[in-house]
Amino acid sequence: MKVSVFRQTHFNAAHRLHNPEWTPEKNKEIFGKCNNPSYHGHNYELIVKVYGEINPVTGFVIDLKVLKDIINEHVLERFDHKNLNIDVEEFKNLNPTAENIAVVIWNILRSKIDSHLELTVRLYETPRNFVEYDGA
Amino acid sequence: MKVSVFRQTHFNAAHRLHNPEWTPEKNKEIFGKCNNPSYHGHNYELIVKVYGEINPVTGFVIDLKVLKDIINEHVLERFDHKNLNIDVEEFKNLNPTAENIAVVIWNILRSKIDSHLELTVRLYETPRNFVEYDGA
Amino acid sequence: MKVSVFRQTHFNAAHRLHNPEWTPEKNKEIFGKCNNPSYHGHNYELIVKVYGEINPVTGFVIDLKVLKDIINEHVLERFDHKNLNIDVEEFKNLNPTAENIAVVIWNILRSKIDSHLELTVRLYETPRNFVEYDGA
Amino acid sequence: MKVSVFRQTHFNAAHRLHNPEWTPEKNKEIFGKCNNPSYHGHNYELIVKVYGEINPVTGFVIDLKVLKDIINEHVLERFDHKNLNIDVEEFKNLNPTAENIAVVIWNILRSKIDSHLELTVRLYETPRNFVEYDGA
Amino acid sequence: MKVSVFRQTHFNAAHRLHNPEWTPEKNKEIFGKCNNPSYHGHNYELIVKVYGEINPVTGFVIDLKVLKDIINEHVLERFDHKNLNIDVEEFKNLNPTAENIAVVIWNILRSKIDSHLELTVRLYETPRNFVEYDGA
Amino acid sequence: MKVSVFRQTHFNAAHRLHNPEWTPEKNKEIFGKCNNPSYHGHNYELIVKVYGEINPVTGFVIDLKVLKDIINEHVLERFDHKNLNIDVEEFKNLNPTAENIAVVIWNILRSKIDSHLELTVRLYETPRNFVEYDGA
What we know:
6 copies of one chain form a homohexamer. The first copy, chain A, is of the alpha+beta class. The first copy, chain A, contains 4 helices and 5 strands, in the order E-H-E-H-E-H-H-E-E.
């Protein structure tokens, strides 16, 4: 029996949407208030979904304490209370849109979770704007 | 990389469930309190999901401001603070169940969003009763 | 020891804001979309707060099952899946604003709950617009 | 047109994670605080999803009142305000992890819902830890 | 300037409502399903409110990290993943109703927080049933 | 009859906690991760409460559209998608803790709302950390 297991967590970060190849006017036109050069920020809510067989000995697909520790060490330690554009290596040359943040987090977690488990990442930038990525 | 992008919004509307080909007794039996001839209403929460490739120049699947404007103009302007049975053309001859409202909204939005983007509509009639339609 | 006890419940209703002594233009100017003559509606969330001494024998201020039954019988039976303007006696000559609905519900409940218990009613018309009345 | 219909409900239960074939030390190591021999508990939130064709006569995939009654009779009556390990037959020899509870509920409901309708069960053990099972 | 500061946290616990001086029938009549001798449980949400002057040097009424540590050490360590009736000293002879749990938590915290700060405790037993105590 | 009316809204901002009279070590010790010199951010949720008599002609304490416009013009235009430390005048010499932000917003709104109406501001920095100020 294959079950999806979800763990929701969060991090608070500053960011700015910006394309350095565009003029300031073009950046303002496309990214609007999100282009503010002094940054703004969000309480990001992150839901990590892991899909696989139930281990009949434990009754777990994955021990949620283990999953929580992986997320804490590899995502929250690097993203929480940070400025994504300045402090997080992956966004030095990548615009930190919700889409791109979700892909970056998925890539980080994919290498830490057993490959026979499927992985999906959902990221809420606000309660009304969110994205989901499953490696497709 | 293909990502799902979600935009949640809401509208407040009155409606009534009713099949004009049935007797009042049959309507009462099937639709219960929802058949009240003077209507009742809901705060509908609408989540529109768009799935497609990330544009590498913007980092967006779709600009959420653009998506928001499409929803506002084509759905909220016509549904918000309305009586669905009386004020909305599509329900003149269609029972405004949550299922049918979701299909109507999907059809409206499908014609306004690029065809290479997949579209799914989730509609909450109450926090505990909701539906989802993806054109299947 | 005096404790506040809260019970949250909900009802779905249609309504319309309207002052019959005004012109249609004045009604439209003041009440905007809420003046739609064919009504709109809401999922109202109702929180009833009762404040008083803990009964040392039961450990209750008030048995929440009893409070729930009072709310069901005297409020929900009369308000749920109704049109407030048409179906609820109290709004025949009273504009069903959130403020007035809260006062009406408070008056209904005040007569059903022991007078040594203090009563407050909070009513959410939407998750972002709400009111509270305590008999002051 | 095929639509998913969701009904969310809840039950409050005690449970304990435990593998009787392990030593107390091994149980403590794997299940941590969840192994407490005097039990702990949760407000479980249950979302039942039913997917199928809209009935053109009613506008329903399934009458949510019917679905609600099925869930009440076959799940809530047996799980709500219970100790899952002690009071619920299915967990006499099955560890009541969220994964296993979801599978048990899915099996119960599968036999009560028309086979042409697809069924998925989502179970929140806490707002941040949840699972989903669709019979796969 | 006096400001209220709130910290919300949670614990998962089993409990049973029971008055040992009553017959089983009387207990069943008053406490209903909550009297189940094998216990049931809840995800309790706890909101601690501290009211006092803003410290002009820090801009804090109380450092929320300090408040969080106090709640963790003195409440969560003792209540989380426990059976309140069996594992928590204060309920050996006190019925663990939401009202009594809130008073017990308030008394625990009152002795750990500076006396010039006012203290209020709100406890959600479920999202719809909750209580509040401020020492009155 | 006096009723409280609440309007909830939100803004997304970056900020940093810092006391320029302290050493970097002291700032790090007291403000921890919140002292990050490149900033972090939040989705702030703001609830404005206005308390006063119901106007018998409109049924309103205050027209929520008017209150919404006041909040938009005087708070959101200045705080949303901004860096509080850099972009908002009031925090040039004031540490933008949740407490201080609430006081600043209260002072802004107090001058825009009729003085016979009482005003309270609640500000959520995260869903679990929040503050409230009523001018006391």
